[in-house]
Amino acid sequence: MPAACDSVLEDIEDIVSAQDPKPHDRQFVRKNVFPKVRKRSSQQNTQTDDDPPSDSIIPGVQKIWIRTWGCSHNNSDGEYMAGQLAAYGYKITDNSAEADLWLLNSCTVKNPAEDHFRNSIKKAQEGNKKVVLAGCVPQAQPRQDYLKGLSIIGVQQIDRVVEVVEETIKGHSVRLLGQKKDNGKRLGGARLDLPKIRKNPLIEIISINTGCLNACTYCKTKHARGDLASYPIEELVDRAKQSFQEGVCEIWLTSEDTGAYGRDIGTDLPTLLWKLVEAIPEGAMLRLGMTNPPYILEHLEEMAKILNHPRVYAFLHIPVQSASDSVLMDMKREYCVADFKRVVDFLKEKVPGITIATDIICGFPGETDEDFQETMKLVEQYRFPSLFINQFYPRPGTPAAKMHQVPAAVKKQRTKDLSQLFHSYNPYDHKVGERQRVLVTEESFDSNYYVAHNPFYEQVLVPKDPVLMGKMVEVNIYEAGKHFMKGQPVSDARVYTASITRPLAKGEVSGLTKEFRHAPRNGTNWKGHPSAEIPVKTSFSPWMPLQLPWQQEGSGLKILSVSLALLAVLVMLYYGGMKTEL
What is the CATH T-level fold of the domain 185-425, as seen in this structure? Predict the structure, then answer.
């Protein structure tokens, strides 16, 4: 069946249709058929039964290069996919040239990110690399021409990445784009206890929910992530506890809108945060993700108390996008500028020193010069230390793409003007001479410093002393730049070690049970998991879905139905290929 290599299998059900004869039917229809046994040649007999066919492909031994674009939610998905592949036996490499397969995890927020994604696909194909696509671009628009014939793993199907990679390596094209549901209710996504490889072993990124409640006219991410679906509090707390047991000292909470957390499951963000705070050891920190103004307004008092907690960064990312109410209405942002100011003013009063980060879109359709000047005044008033400036790009399929566009030259000039305003002030000059407590978690891009953050999540560069990594120390601030400060550790200060265990090595797989760690890989049976289905490694193998250890729960019925389907396929192949005498 060579045509199978060119077909696109949406799922196991695509292999056998309802009209195909069942094994039982074939048994009685062909009861008078007698097989004629072929004699093997001497050459064939020299191959032992244990030898695989010479043209076989054995998945689980190849090298995979993973590239992720976009937000921390996307980065978390990439870490989970890397962990599952490594746990199965694949080698995750940083060298794209030596990789057998490229896993490209995309972002659909802006045109440039998708352009990079598209160019990477072309480069992979030119280099004869196998390709698997992930992230928001193929999830939102899987039928785009440049995605034709390529395997896709949906944003809610990342726990099945091993299956998709296996079949792609065999030459099949597989697409899994469905939603995860429980009794008809949409779930947050794949399980949180999957194996993962943290990009930084000291930082755990936890997605608390997926999707959102808004319908912003410019947003393409909504098409991929969908409506709000939250993870239960107990699962999130368990994930945090497991992370600390693996040497993590900083947790980032992420989602498309953290402020909306829990509205679909009868809880809310403050309730989750208080539970998480109880699990944070001394010397570790929690950073909150982006929240839109409408949902944080309801919880201002509680949020202020949480942001004042010594183990929570006094930091919040609240996108305003524009300071013009008419533009916000066209964006369908569901708040006005006064709402944004109320949130910021309240938190600045109740959480002294808090860092407020925000986003602004320049040149949204219909934005006038007066609208833009209102935005400039807002930035001048609050002098945000962290400001993400985005020139508007119309994303295909969004309402904003059909609106009357601002000329490109005007958008570019407004972006330039706002950038100049942002760089006209230095938010940290007044902090030179301060003594600050900082948590050291990573290395600077130029490799000259270690990067730490103070209680307001402001970046502080410290000397590259390996003793400091993963520790909370006190420093004297002696220099300030636009985006950072520099600090010298205080010799007589106490050093806090948050980790209750040594951090995992870079590239080490997180979340593996002892049982899983000792299980053989690469196509052999998983010890301790007698019900696990591992694909037969032959030159021809219809798509046989894996049952990995993290996929065991509640899968008995599915295994039975899949097994029956596969039996039908094998019977067809057997009778169709044999020479018979009637």
Answer: pyruvate-formate lyase- activating enzyme (3.80.30)
